[in-house]
User: Fold this.
Amino acid sequence: MWSKKYPADENNVTKLTMRCLLIDTGERKILIEAGVGDHYSEKIQRNNGHEETDSLPKSLAAKGYSTKDITDVLFTHLHWDHCNGAVVNENGELKLLFPNATHWCSKKQWEHSKISNIREQAAYYPDILKVLKEDGNMQLVEGARELFPGVSVRLYDGHTPGQMIPFIKKDGKTIVFMADFIPTSANVPIVWLASYDLFPVSSMKEKEQFLNEAIEKEYVLFFEHDFYNECATVRMGKKGPKVKEKFCLKDIL
Assistant:
């Protein structure tokens, strides 16, 4: 069923990406997510299907930025593929990739990362989180709020407690960074969940409420993990919310 919505190879493996988003307000350079980084053995990379890709410094440089320019890094949550790339290993010493940045995550997610269960605990790297907290001026967000002008966040708990989803207002549009709330366009239908959601029923309830709002207010969904589609809008179909149109962010801004 999945292969009809999202391609899979002969081993039933799908391609995913770790798409970050940079918001330049002039005064602030706000990066959402930081990917996995390069902390892993060949075995871990092989088991997770992790292929080498362009590093964040290289991607930023291509757009005229350096890692020192970043003023803020927002983590939707603290799983390895969302925050570990904000720390680099230099000759065995862990250091911040963005030395001038304030780092942000929800207080609920931070506290959960310390007590996670056997199913999820491998997704957290305590040594890296310690560096982010002690050296990265980690700010813990409590509840929905505006973090910066035009950038607000809401918390959702179905995937992992306290996942912090950014809502960005730009040129009359609202762009929502979907993270693992709705990781790909194939996950838009309410019952099409990722198998790694901790609380599937909560995920469905959260998705239904959000997607009804997204349809009404014509939100742009920005997908972090969809290898094939960067953005989409949604509409109501006969069986519930479904993808309306797919496009790249640069095509509408």
Summary: The radius of gyration is 18 Å. The chain has seven helices and 14 strands.
